[in-house]
Amino acid sequence: MARVFITGSADGLGQMAAHLLIDEGHRVVLHARSEARAKEAWQAAPGAEAVVVGDLSSIAQTRAVAEQVNDLGRFDAIIHNAAVGYREPRRIETVDGLPHVFAVNTLAPYILTALISKPKRLVYLSSGLHQGGDETLQDLTWTQRPWQGIAAYSDSKFHDALLAFAVARRWPDVLSNALEPGWVATKMGGAGAPDDLQAAPKTQVWLAVSEDPSARVTGEYFYHMKRRAPNPAVHDERLQDRLLAACERFSGVKLPL
Prior knowledge:
The chain is α/β, with parallel strands linked by helices. 37% of the residues lie in helices and 13% in strands.
């Protein structure tokens, strides 16, 4: 039996992954951005062990989430599922002066990775759109470019894959992988999304708890429990280190050795 923390698990793929894990007998800690959402998460997954609360668009609240998780003890796996989508019509600025998409999708998983005690496995949700992400890592805060929601989302999912690969390289004792769940009919994906919704949460669960040798790997990218070639740029160690340095600069949090 494994103990797993899932960010953004009040609904959507995070909640679906929680149900799969609970049904298999694993201990699951949920995450919601507010107390109201936490109540909804509890009602939807009453078999969960606990719910931690914090808005991942805020650096202070993200740090508080890490503290809550650490107070609960060690975890076998963490699934970095929380994300906002590509439909934001303008650059929405957070309390820290950062774009909302960057804060939630890129910076929050970095902060949580850095501050939560190392689990045995880390799983980061990327997207097929990461293939079109900006490989220059310039203008991460979207102050020099005209805002494009889908481009900002694509950039953030490229960052998630970079982060997974950077952690795999720096922490050889932790299995760190990324995946794309497919374009599915969640609140984010929209009703017309064509991929298999029931298959969408399975890869992250498999990577988090399976003893299958195919899942016990690190520095890999998956789609539907099969390895898939990511954007080749995610293997660039200089880019990985540049993203880590930028996230440290924005957050004031350093990734431990």
